[in-house]
Specification:
Number of domains: 3
Strand content: 5-15%
Number of helices: 9
Number of strands: 3
Helix content: 55-70%
Order of helices and strands: HHEEEHHHHHHH
Oligomer: single chain
Length: 274
């Protein structure tokens, strides 16, 4: 009897434990657990709300009274104020408009990062206005010098118009580098003579190369693992250094530009933008 009672007790104890299926899950052995599982599965799945893909760029619907089409509103990182931009009518579906807004938002975010990294702010000054301001700020130029400068600036403005350059903001670092790159190509190919090139461009070549050209080119070559970036600009700078040493009978160390000289040169170069 004691043994039988023990067995019954053991059986009774085992019946209180949950049973498991072959992969270790608790098997549903009662109607209550089945009802609970049914209730959980019948709950509506709450969709996660996604944020805007173009945060900071608001699309504004057309206003018939104001006779305006689709527009976008955002804060310009350079001007630090709210601006409105009219969308291209070719963006004729909401999907195209949303895609444009998303790309605009990414561009604005990238521009903010550039400004945080020390990039100069866009001022929006037209090239013609900048040239006029330069002449207004230099009223003591001789008639001969004024005629020479105006002839050069008129040619530059004509070239800029054909190239699609409208403001001083369009004249980026690459434009300066490309100019000296082309100049170096012409010198190496002997379309230009060393003497006249030294007379006209030695100061600008040497100062711009020392100011940012050498570092920029070195960084670009390392970034893209390509040693051919702006080789002609480098050739031009080295050739101008050699001609400078020959004409002035100086050693290379004596011709090294100081940081003060470079700063004064750049300040003089950008005076017309003030």
């Amino acid at each position: 009897m004691p043994h039988e009672a023990s067995e019954n007790g053991s059986d009774r104890h085992c019946r209180l434990l949950p049973t498991y299926d072959t992969i270790g899950r608790v098997a549903s052995s009662s109607s209550s657990s089945s009802n609970e599982a049914s209730a959980v599965s019948s709950r509506p799945v709450r969709k996660r709300r996604k944020g805007k893909a173009h945060r900071g760029v608001t699309l504004i619907r057309p206003n018939e009274k104001a006779r305006t089409g689709w527009r976008a509103r955002y804060v310009d990182p350079d001007l630090e104020k709210m601006v409105w931009e009219t969308l291209d009518p070719a963006l004729d579906t909401i999907e195209l408009k949303e895609d444009w807004a998303a790309r605009k938002a990414k561009g604005l975010a990238l521009r903010r990062l550039e400004l945080m990294g020390g990039a100069p702010r866009a001022v929006g000054t037209g090239l013609a206005s900048a040239m006029k301001r330069y002449f207004d700020d230099h009223p003591r130029l001789s008639e001969e010098t004024l005629t020479l400068y105006r002839s050069a600036t008129n040619k530059f403005l004509a070239w800029a118009t054909k190239a699609g350059l409208e403001s001083v903001d369009d004249l980026v670092v690459q434009d300066v580098l490309n100019f000296f790159e082309d100049l170096g190509t012409m010198l190496r190919s002997r379309y230009l003579e060393v003497g006249p090139t030294w007379q006209a461009f030695s100061v600008h070549t040497r100062h711009y190369w020392a100011a940012f050209g050498e570092k920029y080119v070195t960084d670009m070559r390392a970034k893209y693992a390509d040693q051919t970036f702006y080789t002609e600009f480098e050739f031009l700078a080295r050739r101008m250094d050699r001609e400078e040493r020959r004409r002035r009978r100086k050693k290379l160390g004596d011709l090294k530009l100081s940081s003060t000289a470079i700063a004064e040169f750049l300040e003089d170069e950008c005076k017309f933008e003030d």
